[in-house]
Amino acid sequence: MDPWQDAMDHAVAVARRAGTLVRDAVQKDMKVMLKSSSVDLVTQTDQKVENLIIQSVTEKFPTHCFIGEESVAAGEACLLTDQPTWIVDPVDGTTNFVHGYPFVAVSIGFTVNKQLEFGVVYSCLEDKMYTGRKGRGSFCNGLSLQVSSQKDITQSMVATEFGSNRDPEVVDKIFCSMRRILCLPVHGMRGAGSAALNMCHVAAGSVEVYYETGIHCWDVAAAGVIVTEAGGLLMDVDGGPFDLMSRRVVAVNCQIIGDRVVKQIECFSPQRDDEGPQHKT
Ligand code: LIP
Fold first, then answer.
1. I want to staple 229 with a disulfide (CB 3.0 to 4.6 A). Which of 10, 76, 138, 210 is the partner?
2. How many C-beta atoms lie closer than 10 Å to residue 113's C-beta?
3. Are the C-beta atoms of 222 and 120 separated by less than 8 Å?
4. In this structure, are strands 157-159 and 188-190 parallel, antiparallel, or unpaired?
5. Where does Mg(2+) bind (predicted)?
6. How far is 196 from 226, CA to CA, in rounded Å?
7. Which residues are documented as binding site for Mg(2+)?
8. Domains parsed from the chain with CATH numbers
9. Which protein residues are within 6 Å of ligand 1, measured from CB?
10. 18, 123 in Cβ contact below 8 A?
11. Ligand 1 pocket mutation pick from 89, 215, 244 by most atoms within 8 angstroms of CB
């Protein structure tokens, strides 16, 4: 008997409801607000969907904790404890949502004792429900997922993003890493505009690797389980162990390609998710 089956079923059901809300609002909800920079966007739909998820989960699991993108933006703590914790990105790919670019996901991860237990990523506009449960595999619309078997980086497709930091020094590092990777050479580079969906694409075998610095725990928690349960690995961009709060991720089909890619990445360290202003005393 799986102790978290009920919670996972609830996550799938609420992600579907949330996805309907997102789908109905796409290209209609144009009240765009800003967060950390003029390119870090948020809409009323992000807030509405997060409230819907938190309310629905709280009714069923009143003792569980939350880390939600919009709650943290509103000043709540982003602290991972041993308690059962739902890590929620109501709209992953908000910029896509605003522009009607078709990769937008509701992302719900779940941890116990700080370990990822399950992840649900619903690609609302494609109607694709990705799920991963520790020890039980990952699926898209019920079909089992498996990472690519490719071992040669020069035969691979690599996904990354530009993020929302436009500091020229950071942008130079991003381009430097991309240039090195492109010139290995690789078959191509892509970016869906949603960290969660880039990772689901690794799990599905359509790209071999996705890396990014600047993401948050709510962008990668759910998809992290989906990648590992599809046979992939999570690493830090320096090749070390993945740390959910570090804002750095490499999701890859195999160690050989992971090791090759991290050698090309210019590392930098944004402020950790668990070291935001609300954690300073
Ligand atoms: C976004 C990611 C995107 C990444 C941005 C941001 P949001 O999430 O999914 O891939 O490049 O840095 O984190 O803000 O749309 O939830």
1. 138
2. 11
3. yes
4. parallel
5. 69, 89, 92, 219
6. 10
7. 69, 89, 92, 219
8. 5-142 (3.30.540.10), 153-275 (3.40.190.80)
9. 69, 89, 92-94, 161, 163-164, 193-195, 212, 214-216, 219
10. no
11. 215
Is this model's pTM higher than 0.85 or not? yes
CA 203 to CA 225: how far, in whole Å? 10
Which one has a higher pLDDT value, 63 or 29? 63
Angle 170-172-175 from CA coordinates, rounded to 5°: 110
**Ligand 1 closest atom vs CA 93:** 15
| DSSP code at position 275 | G
**Ligand 1 atom with least separation from CA of 164:** 12
How many helices (DSSP H) and strands (DSSP E) are in the chain?
A: 8, 14
Residue 253, Cβ neighbours under 10 Å: how many? 25
Residue stretches of the annotated binding site = 69, 89, 92, 219
Separation between Cα atoms, residue 194 and residue 210, nearest integer Å: 11
CA 254 vs. chain centroid, Å, equals 19
Closest-CA residue to 253 (of 274, 222, 230, 270): 230
Q: What is the dihedral of CA 55, 56, 62, 67, to 10 degrees?
A: -60
Q: How far is the CA of 95 from the centre of ligand 1 (A)?
A: 8
Q: How far is the CA of 1 from the centre of ligand 1 (A)?
A: 35
The stretch 196-207 carries a mean pLDDT of: 98
pLDDT more than 90, % of the chain:
91
pLDDT tens, position by position, 83-117: 999 999 999 999 999 999 999 999 999 999 999 99
In this prediction, residue 281 carries a pLDDT of 31
**Cα 6 to ligand 1 centroid, rounded to whole Å:** 29
